[in-house]
Fold these 3 entries.
Entry 1:
Amino acid sequence: MEKRTKSGTLPRFRPFGVFAYLEECAFDSRSRAWKKADLFTLLIELDQFLNVKGMNPQPSQIVEQLNQFYQTVDAAPVNQQQVSLIYYKAALQASNDKIDRVRRAVVIAGVLGGAQDEDVIDQLKVQGLA
């Protein structure tokens, strides 16, 4: 038997909405967003951002923020920006390493929310990850 909402419609399957939003973002095929660990982190954090926090920014805004961040991550070993370097090192680790998954999640959540690097570092410290 199908579960229906009070209005009688079938409930929306959250991942479909996240996938549709990600498709609207239209990241370049060479974007870091499509790398396995980065993609999984992005999908989960987009779900949190869109469905749990109820945010609904324009996909172009998210693409701009993430592309800018991913550029700093790709240059992290050279530029040594702390948040980018933390993410870079966490992304190099196996995607099944929980601590690095959580580090990536905290950083991407900060990027999606427009947080400053200092705020992301503080959040990582609070969670014992920095």
Entry 2:
Amino acid sequence: MADGAVSVLRDGGDAVLRRERVAIHYPYAHSGAAFDLRPYAIRRVFRIYPPRVVAVIVTLIAEQVALPLAHLPPSTWGKTVATIAMAQNYSAPPGQMAGNPSLWSLPVEMELYAAYPLLLWIWRRAGTSRMLMPGGLCQSCPPPHMAQS
């Protein structure tokens, strides 16, 4: 049963990231609209970062109240600062806040937002037909941490 739950969570995370890729690209897909990096970046940062800070604050409060009742330590301040900075997936040691491990996905989403302008530029230069093969290959290969063992 635990393996099934992990599989559903993996698939759910992948579905969210796929939805985000479509949402990012939709306005530029067929219109050929000019891409302006500054407003794009500002929209992406304000879409993600303020709600993330609120989520971290709520998580801190919940950890201070609930985790002592279970005789568990709250997240360290270092882990909290890394989470606010969206570096918790990469800082040593990597890991999530004890009270909200789902915060891992937002730094990954920001990475996709950061990579999108380059990918759009390549797609517009190479054309759709040349992008189908590499795009299909990328979609069919799960990230190493999500591969079934």
Entry 3:
Amino acid sequence: MTHTEQAADRAATYYDQGFNCAECMVLMANDLIAADLVPGAPRVATALGRGMGAHKETCGALSGGILVLSCLYGRETPDKEPYRKTRQAANKYRKLFLDALGYTNCGDFHKLAADKADAKQRCRRITTTAAGLLMQVIGEEEAAPSKPTS
């Protein structure tokens, strides 16, 4: 099984247990990347689910994935390189997400659902797809040569 498939499978497992989309992303990352990558998981991602506190704004799978990227590459000082790398990875993830799924806004996905059960299945598919895309971005970032800091 590839890392992308493992990520999708792990996210599906958490989703089926009742975690929201954003929580699934951070739990999956802690399982597959590092146990302490996202401190306080899933708690730190809870309010991101269902589009920023259930307002159906930015999809929680997208914002949860960006939270993972920030934990992985983010900065602890005002250095520009970690900021650049994190922003670049987040932008790449958002583009892949949009290209693969057509929207970045939770409300747009929910408008397509026939009923509540369909919305739940769509959200599960979005979450598993997003988990795979996140692992793809992380793999590309890890394979890319680092720019020297000046």
